[in-house]
Design a protein that fits this description.
Elements lengths: L1 H25 L4 E15 L9 E4 L2 E7 L8 E7 L3 E2 L3 H7 L12 E13 L2 E10 L2 E16 L6 E12 L15 E12 L3
Antiparallel strand pairs: 1-2, 1-3, 1-10, 2-5, 3-4, 4-6, 6-7, 7-8, 8-9, 9-10
């Protein structure tokens, strides 16, 4: 379950990276972008004994994107998630997730994602690949990302990007395999976020 959280991280980072690749296509300028924290979500889903598919997320994370609209493959994305901010909407379960059997946030307080490549797959979709690190275990992950819209924000009058991304990972590969396979090992991560261009 908690394993999916890590995937979420990576998903968010990928989405951001995707945005950079879409800059040229949608006319969004190159430069540094950051999250609109009021419109950014990272969640993950897994099978609970086959009875339900819970959705869990993180409340605190940062994303830094350096976009190159002429050479999107050179864009960079870095994501840092506060693992202790995991939120299942069940306080008792949250305590299990941050404990030694899962994320062990006392010893591993952050989940990170660093992009390594971007590949355009259609007009507004991209595969964003990068290194996801959870509990000091690093694995390559690819996010299927869609640029929902890239344009000037109608109210704030600054460049804005909206994206969605998804990926599926194995939680056991990140040392989060407790109760697998009864509780699903496969975790699907969902990311949807908006980013603003930083003031220069």
């Amino acid at each position: 379950m908690s394993q999916a959280f890590s995937k979420l991280n990576v998903l968010l980072a990928s989405s951001l990276l995707l945005c950079t690749s879409a800059y040229a296509q949608f006319g969004v300028p190159s430069g540094a972008y950051e999250l609109d924290n009021t419109h950014a979500y990272i969640t993950f889903s897994y099978s609970h004994l086959g009875f339900s598919n819970p959705h869990v997320g993180f409340n605190s994370f940062t994303v830094d994107v350096n976009a190159d609209n002429e050479n999107p493959q050179n864009s960079q994305v870095a994501v840092v998630i506060d693992a202790d901010s995991i939120d299942s909407r069940v306080a008792e379960f949250d305590q299990h997730l941050v404990g030694e059997n899962y994320f062990d946030t006392a010893q591993y307080p952050e989940i990170t994602f660093t992009s390594t490549s971007i590949k355009q797959t259609a007009d507004n979709t991209f595969d964003v690949t990068g290194n996801l690190t959870i509990k000091d275990i690093t694995k390559p992950v690819t996010l299927a990302t869609t640029i929902n819209k890239a344009a000037e924000h109608p109210m704030l009058k600054i460049p804005n990007i909206g994206l969605s991304a998804t990926t599926t990972v194995s939680r056991t590969e990140f040392g989060l395999g407790r109760f697998a396979p009864a509780v699903g090992d496969e975790v699907t991560i969902f990311i949807t976020a908006e980013l603003f261009k930083k003031a220069e």
